[in-house]
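FAQ: What does a ligand-bound record look like?

Like this one, built around 2-acetamido-2-deoxy-beta-D-glucopyranose:
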Amino acid sequence: MRPKVISDSLKDVAEGEQCGAGKGWTMSLPRCPMVRLRVCRFTFRGLVFFTVAVALLYGFLLMDGARSAGKPPWLELNTCSPRNNVAFLKTHKCASSAIQNILFRYGDKHNLHFALPVTGNYFGGGRHIFEAGMVRSSPFNKVTPNIFAIHTKWNYEEVKKVMPEDTVYFTIVREPTALFQSLFDYASIGERAGGLTLDEYVRRNPIDASRTDGYVGYNQMTWDLGMPLEDMSNLTAARELVRRADAQFGLVLVAERMDESLVLLANYLCWELRDVLVLRVNSLRDEVRRGEGRGHTVPVSHSLLQVTHFVPPAVQVFHQ
Ligand SMILES: *[C@@H]1O[C@H](CO)[C@@H](O)[C@H](O)[C@H]1NC(C)=O
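The answer part, i.e. the structure of the complex:
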């Protein structure tokens, strides 16, 4: 009896191993002889493994089907090449200093050339419409510039004359009343009109009133886009300006949608997202924004100096 028991149990063990019953496997179940089914019987663990295996197989088959139907868009590789010739209309009080800073840093990093004025941080001082000669006469412009990002009163045809053929053009806009409130404080418009509040100033001055310093005032984006003073109340001229801008700029960012705008910008220029990281530059302090206290915001030149690390050497020269 004893040897038989031993040999039987050895046989059971051997067949059990073969069927994988001891580990709860079910894959080899059909290979088990009917008489030994009790050894290879379904265990709860086996059932779970089987279910998971079928689910995985089904999943793989589904993925295979998706692959053969073409890659999903998020798997497509970005095949564009980075734009190195870029012109930006720097509109007043539209977060454009932050954008300018992005362009300066990128140009500095990639050893590009900048369109820079003879002195100051404007082409034409803000009053005069841009002319190619303003770039060409500058001692900083010995070669064709790659980056145009300095304040000016926009003149597309003239900017095109100084930039390479494959230049891409973009600008940034902001809701006009918020812009004017910011500008009113920033340029001390009320103060310089004899100490007027914003309300008083708006009541007393028509839309085509003379501009502070000859260039700052109502509808600043319209002015920056090239509108002459005599057309500031001409709706036909305004519509034409918008239509022209639409044709000239490949991308228009929106200051109120900065995050989305920056992602679009990186995409438009085919740059890395890390290239469009920003600092908040030259913005109203929060207490001024809330209406507490008078505005003493940082002038443009100082805000540029605060980020000296990122400013090309030639720009630093004209701020000294
Ligand atoms: C308004 O602008 C249009 C388009 O530029 C021009 O033809 C028209 O003469 C202007 N009207 C006035 C009153 O200046």
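Follow-up question: can I read anything off the structure? Yes, for example: The beta strands are 86-89, 122-123, 147-148, 151-152, 168-173, 251-254.
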